[in-house]
Specification:
It is built from two helices and nine strands; from the N terminus they run H-E-H-E-E-E-E-E-E-E-E. By secondary structure, the protein is mostly beta strands.
């Protein structure tokens, strides 16, 4: 990410002194894009003793329930926007909507400290399946080449699914799921090149932060046994994508 920004900033510095203006970026445009997204998610499952767990079991479950997963997957969709050029300065805005197939799951099995060899198993997953961004763009143009920085609103539906079971013999299970539309932010940069007539191609990087989603559940087992659980997961991601635009 730092290397990409350094290259783009250097490119902007080189072209900012140019006075020649051949291609005019002013106008409305529509286009499509496709690429790859990858991210980081801190997942957490926390149990309370209730009427089921011994204190040592609570500590073991909570230690196993904190971890990190790295969702990744295909990104692709459509965008529309407008540019206004004055000299070498290009100002504009863009909205895009993408399929955002970022997902990853984690399963961990551990031994109850005071009840070996009995074990418990935690399952945790994170998923985001669409992405909407609304961003201003500021760039420097040199003829057919445009380098720009961009940032603004990012929206997705963040899902976190969790499960618990053990081999203790009482049929203990728990399930907790959270799904929420999250409003976050995005920041990035790109380069775009006018190919011919009204067509252009671009390479763009975006970093996004969506915050976290939480849920709760209750473990049930034979008899009166029960215990409350709480779950959470956040998501930050990077997206690198290629796109084409048609300017009206």
């Amino acid at each position: 990410m730092r290397i990409l920004f350094a290259v783009l900033i250097a490119s902007l510095a080189l072209v900012s002194g140019a006075n020649a203006e051949v291609y005019n970026w002013t106008g409305y445009y529509i286009g499509a894009n496709a690429g790859y997204g990858w991210g980081d998610s801190d997942v957490s499952t926390t149990a309370s003793a209730g009427t089921y767990f011994a204190p040592s079991s609570v500590a073991a479950v909570n230690a196993a329930g904190h971890g990190k997963v790295h969702p990744d997957g295909f990104v692709g969709g459509v965008q529309a926007g407008m540019n206004w050029q004055n000299g070498n300065l290009v100002l504009g805005g863009e909205v895009d909507f993408n399929a955002y197939d970022l997902s990853k799951s984690r399963t961990i099995t551990a031994v109850y400290p005071a009840f070996a060899p009995d074990t418990f198993t935690l399952g945790q997953s994170v998923k985001a399946d669409w992405l909407l961004t609304l961003r201003p763009r500021v760039g420097i143009a040199m003829d057919n080449l445009l380098g720009y920085v961009t940032g603004g609103l990012a929206v997705t539906n963040l899902k976190n699914t969790n499960s618990f079971s053990d081999t203790f013999g009482l049929g203990a299970t728990e399930y907790g799921s959270g799904s929420k539309t999250k409003y976050g932010w995005t920041l990035g940069a790109g380069v775009e090149y006018a190919l011919m007539d009204n067509w252009s191609a671009k390479l763009e990087y975006l970093y996004t932060d969506f915050g976290s989603v939480s849920s709760s559940g209750t473990l049930t087992a034979a008899g009166p046994s029960a215990a409350p659980f709480s779950h959470s997961a956040d998501l930050t991601s990077s997206t690198l994508r290629l796109g084409v635009n048609y300017k009206f």
